[in-house]
Amino acid sequence: MFNFDEANKKGKEAMDTALKSYSDVSKGFQAIAAETAEYSKKSFQDGVTHFETLAGVKSFEAVFELQSSYVKSAYENFVAEATKLGEMYADLAKNAYKPYEAPVAAATKAASKAAATATAA
User: Is residue 16 a part of any domain in this protein?
Assistant: First the structure.
C-alpha cells in the first residue's frame, strides 16, 4: 500500500540532498574561479615585469638568458596551476557525489535483494 507520509519524507530528503549538492558545487566553482583569476593576475604581472626588465637589457646574450629563464618559470607555474586546478575539480566531483552515495548504495542493495527474491520464487 502507498504511504503518503513515507513518500513525503523521501521527497523532502531528496530535495535536501539536491540543495546541499548544488550548494557544494557552487562553492567549488567559486573557489576555482577565484583561483583562476588570481593565477591570471599573477601571470600578467609577471609578464609585465619581465618585459620591463627585458627592455632595459643591453646585450643579446642577456636577453636570451632572461627570456629562457622567464619561459621556463612561466611553464613551471602553468603546470603547477593546472595540477592544482585538476585537484580542485576532482575534489568538486567527489563532494558533489557524496550526498548521493548513501541513497544510491541503499537503492542498489534494495534492488539486489528484490532481484534475488524474484529469481528465487
Answer: yes
> By CB neighbour count within 10 A (0-12 exposed, 13-18 middle, 19+ buried), where does 68 fall?
exposed
Count of structural domains within the chain: 1
What is the pTM for the complete model shown?
0.72
Q: Which of 55-64, 81-90, 94-103, 108-117 has the highest mean pLDDT?
A: 81-90
In angstroms, the CA 16 to CA 8 distance is 12
Question: Which of 79, 86, 81 minimizes the C-alpha distance to 36?
Answer: 81
Query: CA–CA separation, 65 vs 56, rounded Å?
Result: 14
Q: How far apart are CA 97 and CA 113, in angstroms?
A: 24
